[in-house]
Amino acid sequence: MSVEKDIQSNQLNIDPNEFAMNIIRNNQKQPGQTNQRFVKDQLTLYLEAFYLIQDFDQLETSQFQNMKQQQISDLFDKMLSRRFDP
To answer: What is the DSSP letter of 11?
Structure first.
């Protein structure tokens, strides 16, 4: 499974396709289950895993950007308070 970590930002990115393929690869057809039902279940599982990881990556990216903006804001606040408080 492809997991990339951006060292500078400590941001984790998971490849949605690889993740979903690994999930369905380990899913076995149940006794008595028709081929059509199995394929539908596999497709559903793939899509759920794929979109779950996409959402995770987007959420982490937005949280990281918000955190950076908050840290910058905090830094400016500290700088201004020290400038006006001798």
So the answer is: E
Q: Token pair for residue 37?
A: 């039902």
Structural domain spans, the chain? 3-84
Give the pLDDT score at 42: 95
CA separation for the pair 4, 16 (Å, rounded): 12
**Rounded CA separation 22/5 (Å):** 19
Using a 10 angstrom Cβ sphere, with 0-12 exposed, 13-18 middle and 19 or more buried, the burial of residue 41 is: middle
Is 2 strand, coil or helix? coil
| Helix 35-84 × helix 16-25 angle, to 10° | 140
Q: Which pTM does this prediction carry? A: 0.61
